[in-house]
Amino acid sequence: MPLEGVFNTYVITNEAGSVTDLCSFYKLPSTIMGHSEYSTLYTAYSYYNVATTVSLEALMYDALIMAKQQGFDVFNALDCMENKGFFENLKFVPGNGHLRYYLYNFRVKSFLAEETGLVLL
Prior knowledge:
Elements: E1 7-13, E2 19-31, E3 40-50, H1 56-69, E4 74-76, H2 84-87
Parallel strand pairs: 3-4
Antiparallel strand pairs: 1-2, 2-3
């Protein structure tokens, strides 16, 4: 469910009213210091995305439009699972660093980003 000013959800339903596709993103504002015109940068972070009746790219395209309509300046998505499939066509650009997570008490030999899912709590 959306939570105004914090969390946004976009759903697609079928004729019976059941949700078939979903995308969501949360809001993380950042303070801009020392700028005469702007004081806050509003960033949307992709959260849950489930595409069953449309392509993931089409779903994320709609999410970008929704974020723009709601006044976001930036839309971020991690390069895990199937996200890389829409990055190029939707004009996502790589960040300037690598995001690293420490998984406490967790052991794996190795894995690829596109085979990994991450849920932030």
